[in-house]
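Quarterly update from the structural biology core.
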Amino acid sequence: MKPICLFGLVLAFVVPSGDAAAELTVNGDFETGDISGWTSFASPAQTFAVTSDSKTGSFAGELFNDVSGSALVVKQANLGVGLVTAGETILISFDAKGAETSGGVAFAEFFSEIAGGGTSANPILGSGPLALTNDYQRFSFSPVTGPDVSGGITLQFNAATGANVGSTSRLFIDNVSVARISAVPEPASAALAGLISCGMLLRRRR
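Predicted structure, tokenized:
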């Protein structure tokens, strides 16, 4: 009986956490040394590239926009097609810092994509521009997907400039994560399930 219970407990504690097991991003920490996994809409006059000015590891992503009255958009697009569901809570987190001049701002946006085009929800995370400083900060959000996620979900960063001449927006991002927090039981829950299973086995053998 003891070996059976020990086995059950071991299984319970080795179950990976929901955050780790349900990660949807590709190269969210830029440690490939390039921007693979990211979709960029940078114009020839704008820049999206890796930088060694990172929060952790060797690399981060840097958006720089000095084209007045424009947007520099990069995204992790159409994640979790066939996995994410309508009304599901998604955990989004990232490290970011930056600086803007003359009306420049930076946003993080979340889209519930509809297959074939369009979105069923598209909130700006934090309901406004990111409150950036010259030092990396950790940002965390828990948006809920819209009624149609047949095209997956998208996390988008937008370094936008104002119409003023000389307006700029610079955004550094690192350790970007988009995770399905409800996809896999947390270790504590799995451990509890293991204990319950052991108790049931012991009771049956008495």
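Residues 1-21, 188-193 have pLDDT under 50 and may be disordered.
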